[in-house]
Amino acid sequence: MTDTLPDRLSSDPTSGFYDAALLERGVGVLFKGAEKTNVEEYCVSEGWIRVQAGKAKDRKGQPLTIKLKGPVEVFFKED
Questions:
Q1: CA torsion angle for 47, 73, 25, 6 (degrees, to 10)?
Q2: DSSP-derived 3-state class of residue 34
Q3: Which positions ≥6 away from 79 have C-beta within 8 Å?
Q4: Relative to the CA of 24, which of 1, 6, 33, 39 has its CA 20 to 30 Å away?
Q5: Which pLDDT band, with edges at 50, 70 and 90, does 3 fall under?
Q6: Strands (E), 1-79
Q7: Which of 71, 60, 67, 64 has the alpha carbon at shortest distance from 32?
Q8: Is 9 exposed, middle or buried (0-12, 13-18, 19+ CB in 10 A)?
């Protein structure tokens, strides 16, 4: 396992950017200097995160998400 995080990562198993091993290890996201715990997906190079939009669901039962733009930093969480 490497110590570098991918540019883009998703917590949705149906996504092409899903990586179970990294998510089990623990990935933290800083968005605009504040740690976010409800991030569904992030992209560092494009500067955005996706978070759930309340309790709303789409027609397939997946949570609706909104894209927030700003500076994104990612890190491994320590035990």
A1: 50
A2: strand
A3: 26
A4: 33
A5: confident
A6: 8-10, 27-31, 34-36, 39-43, 48-57, 63-69, 72-76
A7: 71
A8: buried
